[in-house]
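Let us begin with a simple case.
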Amino acid sequence: MGRHPEQVAPRIPVVVHARDPISREGALSALERDSRIEIRERKTPGGVILMVDHVLSQGTLAQMRRAVGGDGSKAVLVLDTLQDDEFHEIVSYGVSAVVWRHEATRNRLIQAVLAAARGDGDLPADLLGRLIRQLGTGGPPTATGPGFPSYGLTPREVEVMRLVAEGFGTAKIAAELCYSERTIKDVMYKLTTRLNLRNRAHAVAYALREGYI
């Protein structure tokens, strides 16, 4: 009997936007050598948009809104800094990952792109820590604005969201909670659909602001 050829996973289409040519060339150089990634000039439905800037300027924000629409695209932001209110805004528009520029090594960028493509998201630990400390000191009020519906989480959803906030992927969450990966994906799907949340990063922001984690 002949051997079946191994199935090769499709490459992830990635478009890079940057404020300056040096930043763009650096990001392209880091990503284009990875066999799992395919650099594109124009965005592809379900692909990833990597945006590099120093701060979240109005231009970057407007470009991000145009790029991440209802076609399943994910966004990764590479910035020097991000204010807490800006974080809540960007996740409501579909940003799945944030990378600090001083941490933007080749491996770090690839990790963020792969996580975004999977829908897992990837957020800096210090950013999540900042938001958690806010909640402990009477920071932002519970979510009441657009993109943050006021419905509760089930105990199992809270367990899952705590691990998502710690940076765990689907497989690690399943192992930690002794569930199947399919169950974890189902929990996340039902949670984001019920609460009208765009992705895992948006769900983390909601859970933080509501005080669940």
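The second case is a distinct protein. As before, the sequence precedes its structure tokens.
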Amino acid sequence: MDAYDSGSDATQGAEAAQEPQAPPPAPAALPGLPATPVDSPAPAALPGSPEPRTGVAALSPRYQVGAALALAVVAVAVCVHLGMVFLHVAPSNTVTKTHGEAIDDWIYPEFEQNWKLFAPNPLQQNIAVQVRAQIRTPDGSSRTTGWYDLSAQDGRDIDGNLVPSHTQQNELRRAWDFFTASHDSDNRAVGLRGTLSETYLRRIVVLRLERGGATGADGVVERVQVRSSSTNVDPPDWSTEKVSSQAVYRVLPWWSVLPGEAEGDVK
């Protein structure tokens, strides 16, 4: 009986060892979280379901209309500007003769070009724009400053600057070109653009005097006088051409500064 019992116990132990073990129970879900196995794959999208919208399509219809209108306005403005610039630099034609005034109103003075299409006109002189001012001091007296070379200041700002601004490169130079193109040799305005060019140039020099500290403590600019100094560009070394190196000055009359012009408020 002992041997039988021992054999029975051994047989039962072997059968118990061969029985597969039950998998461990799944971890209980935390309160508020779904009871999803950690390694379960994400549910696949149903066949035929629409893809999520992105970009403008993801906006509500009201905002889609607003975005479309904004893009349309920008596109129209760009097309109009490109068309005006093209007509301005193009040779004289029927359109420019008929609508020349509207084209000039759009271009001048901010978008004026210094050359005509297919006919570049490079400058052959170095032109420096200089200014002096009559300053009223707080005690009621006045003093006249020396000549400030604004073009030289622009040159110093550009020299060594990898990305000089449009203002440093072109603002003063184009303002002077605009003035000389709309005035005769006696500095008298020719046409309606003459008055505009004078106001534009005066505003630039007054603002630069203020920013440069030319007025001193509590001083006020009463009048300004602008002049240009023109010198010929030296010919190359291999050329036999001889040009004068003496500076030629063009001095403008004194201009009274309007109230608020130093702050850029006058339009």
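DSSP finds seven helices and six strands in the chain. Residues 61-89 form the longest helix (29 residues).
Keep these points in mind for the review questions at the end of the chapter.
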